[in-house]
């Protein structure tokens, strides 16, 4: 079970790191790829990206080092909440394809949260 959780954590890290990096560091590229970015203030998009990148660190570092490993499921839960809120924005904007992507991200985060709690 531990190996499975590490695999899921790795997939979640890759997914959240990519999205977080685009939002936090490459705003113009994020704006070109995702329509919703243009309708949200730039500072808020960057804040979401930074939160995702912090969550990525929280998914790996505490569990890998054994230092305060309780932070790993907390980070996973926080990421799931961020993505859930994003899914609600996509529903309001009738961007149903993105809601499907959000569902995958939420599933990864929830699996990590449940498995590590």
From TrEMBL:
<protein>
    <submittedName>
        <fullName>DoxX family protein</fullName>
    </submittedName>
</protein>
<dbReference type="Pfam" id="PF13564">
    <property type="entry name" value="DoxX_2"/>
</dbReference>
<feature type="transmembrane region" description="Helical">
    <location>
        <begin position="6"/>
        <end position="22"/>
    </location>
</feature>
<dbReference type="GO" id="GO:0016020">
    <property type="term" value="C:membrane"/>
</dbReference>
<feature type="transmembrane region" description="Helical">
    <location>
        <begin position="70"/>
        <end position="92"/>
    </location>
</feature>
<keyword id="KW-0812">Transmembrane</keyword>
<keyword id="KW-0472">Membrane</keyword>
<feature type="transmembrane region" description="Helical">
    <location>
        <begin position="99"/>
        <end position="115"/>
    </location>
</feature>
<feature type="transmembrane region" description="Helical">
    <location>
        <begin position="43"/>
        <end position="64"/>
    </location>
</feature>
<dbReference type="InterPro" id="IPR032808">
    <property type="entry name" value="DoxX"/>
</dbReference>
<keyword id="KW-1133">Transmembrane helix</keyword>
């Amino acid at each position: 079970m531990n190996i499975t959780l590490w695999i899921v954590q790795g997939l979640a890290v890759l997914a959240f790191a990519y999205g977080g990096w685009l939002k936090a560091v490459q705003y113009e590229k994020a704006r070109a790829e995702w329509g919703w970015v243009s309708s949200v203030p730039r500072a808020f998009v960057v804040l979401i990206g930074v939160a995702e990148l912090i969550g990525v660190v929280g998914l790996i570092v505490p569990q890998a080092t054994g230092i305060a490993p309780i932070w790993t499921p907390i980070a996973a839960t926080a990421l799931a909440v961020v993505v859930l809120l994003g899914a609600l924005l996509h529903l309001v904007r009738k961007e149903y394809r993105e809601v499907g992507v959000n569902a995958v991200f939420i599933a990864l985060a929830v699996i990590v949260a449940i498995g590590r709690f």
